[in-house]
Batch of 4 targets.
Target 1
Amino acid sequence: MMTGTSGHIWMLIFWVIIIGSSIGLLASLFPKATTPRNSGTDTDGDALTILKQRYARGKLSKDEFQTMRQDLEQA
């Protein structure tokens, strides 16, 4: 028969295994939803969208934005 602290440790290990297995099973049954990607027909649109977002957040100056946009449109 288990006594004292060792019994509590084994019970804790048991529940950690049960809960961890349950989480793993649920994660495999319900994988993380991903956003659909373009079919490869409009890759410049994605880059331009990212560029616009960076400009809107203030991470690019107006000159940097215009230069990069022109580079994307020429490619």
Note: The mean pLDDT is 84.
Target 2
Amino acid sequence: MPIMKLTLPAALAVFATLTTSAPAVTGLEVMKEQENRHESKSEYSRALMTLTDKRGRKKERILHTWAVKGSDGLFKTLLKFSSPTDIRNVGLLTWEQAGAADDDQWLSLPATKQVKRITGGSKKNLFMGTDLAYEDMRAEELDAHTYEIVREESVGGKACWVIEATPSTAKEKKESGYSKRNLWISKDNYLTVKADFYGRSGKLEKQCSFEKPVKVKGQLWRNQVTRMHRIPSGSTTTTQLTKLKVDEGAEAALFTQQGLKRPVTDN
């Protein structure tokens, strides 16, 4: 077939198309857009949590989570177990703090009638025998990390940005159990599809998958299933939503140390 020659105006038009593409999105911009799309004013969820050890033995728990956004734009979150009976009413209260300041966290242990404050150095520890660290239970700290798009990749047929999240403040570098995290963010709805967690030594320690996305309303989506696998132990913590309420309000007194001590009720 003969090669068609472009006229000069046409050639210039093609050249302009190739050289004036839209500026690339940054990792921080992706993370901010994720926050804008999937942030609710208040939320309640009930979930079945299954702990599976390397031999396949399972333990089941029921976890309730409440969250509310304050007038200052910061979130307060309460997690509480309702079963099994030996951990019923064990709860974790988190108050998000502005900027790079540490979030406040308290753990309630009814068996000892104590409310224990979780200090910065303890936030890398595992929460109640799960594969989740205390720092995994807080909101993403955009001001305490740098976010760089390192590549693009397809996961389960979904085009994703792969974003490397690295602690950027002296406090986060000191207190976090992670040297970095790799986050796969779906381009179509900005949900996290999976995440890899690297320990202080730089070795891959945990992998998390986020499954069964469902649209709640508008641009707000939630993953119904989350699986956190801890490589050294071979154990996995799976959390599956069984109930979800969004933007229906929340009692302010619930997000206090007194509220943390209150017996759990099934909403």
Note: The first helix runs from residue 8 to 19.
Target 3
Amino acid sequence: MKIERADVIWNYSATLMRMASAVIILPLMLHMLSGEEFGLWTVMIELYTMINLLDFGFNPTFTRAVTYVISGAKELKKTGFTPIEGAVDGSISYPLLKGIILAMKRYYSIVALFMLALLFSLGVWYINNILTGYTGDIKIARIVWFAYGILMCYQFFTFYYDALLVGRGMIRKSRQIIVISQSVYIVLASVLLLCGYGIISLVIGQLCSTLINRFLARRTFYDKDTKRELLKVGGSKSWREILVTLFSTAYKSGISAVSVEFTKGLVPLIGALYIPLSVMGSYGITKRIISLAAALATAWFVAYYPKLINKQVHNLSSEVKHIYIKANLIALGIFCALIAIIVPTGNIALAFIGSEAYLLPVTITILFFVSSLFEVTTYFSTSVLMSRNEVPHYKAQAVTALFTILLLYLGLEFFDYGVSYIVLLPLFTQLAYQYWRWTYKVWVELNITKRDILYELNMLPNSLRKTKAKR
């Protein structure tokens, strides 16, 4: 599997398009929406993150399964994989690939229906609670809430397209689709906001963007050759057996993902029940900027992750080490640069555009950045572990999450610690174990030394200028 520089560039382009949403849409939102409306949208974005937990680890598991098949695997195992010696890329088991696709379709259709039921049950209770004391148009707020909820159900129903494209190594085309769909969102949402349609502009923009994204993704994956081979197969491996096989790893990834979002996504949702939406607006804008920084820091690794899995399948640990170290160095450089730029100038820029919400205090904002950097480096480490179809960190992550939620409730319910507590609590609970344990494990298993790091650091400027990445 070959990843070219163009794949990385397009991956960064897709990330930058998401950042363009902050550069273009966010100032318009801050200028055209009230503090309460912006706080409501922040809660909805966090809800979208939480809804993705219903994937329960199947998306990364499906992605790895597709990459295994594309790399030459003829079977899927519940744990680990059978290394392939001398296999040629392109030796694809289409019956197995077809079975994986059917398994994905069945799984996501069932979960999407479950999500729809949740929206019109628990969703009703939640929106009633957070709109208590809301001074804006409550009818519009409810319409936006349920329209966005239905859109999330459709997004989830078609979630597997990204797994197919990334798993197949089609990073460039996948990111081109994101650039196109994000451009539609930015243009449409901006025009509607300027025309005075308020928060509903964002939902309409997201709807059109999603429909275009899914249409292009389907056409891209099912090219003429792929359709011909899948049709030629006729039958397929049992999708039920594939789901059972993948579940043994997926549920562990799911527990880990749920736990991470408990400490990252559920925290602000609970906080919104105790902290005014206007204050949550400041939290939301700070988190949005830091999330974009994290996306930019992980873009290179995400582009090369299918290749890393391929190298694992072919038992090339030195190549895995190379990708892992380089990803960490790139992430560290990006975070340092962004902290130096955003911390001193962020509020000046927000004041210039007439924002009603500002960044959190400087010290808290810096610690927010640091927490995100730890999260990114831990993500790299656990991704290396999961590339072997193993998820050793899920139990510890679950314990950490439960401990964090308990402390969150006690701090907000009985001590009124406020928004700073929401930032600092996840950082310190994760530092106790998660943020160092799995990085240490990867360093030991890959035998990473100071010489390796210095070598990659010296080679980094040259490697970033290469026209193609090494195989």
Note: Residues 122 and 128 are 10 Å apart (CA to CA).
Target 4
Amino acid sequence: MEHRLARDQPATYRIQVQGQLGQNWVDYLGGLVISVSGEPDKAVTTLSGKVLDPAALFGILNSLYDMGYPLLCVEYLPQL
């Protein structure tokens, strides 16, 4: 069965950026789980969790851009 996204429904995403983002940004980024991998000079931060709607996703991506974190990946994770 195909899962369809709705414009007004939450969805789960995994977002990866280049660099090390601290845990102090959890609340600012909508409560997404933050995990960092790699050496400090080659770190990749992964944000994952439920996002309220597409507008909230764009807000998160815009915040990451404004903070200077290069975007590596945005992945929708369907609920099974």
Note: The beta strands are 11-18, 33-37, 44-51, 71-77.
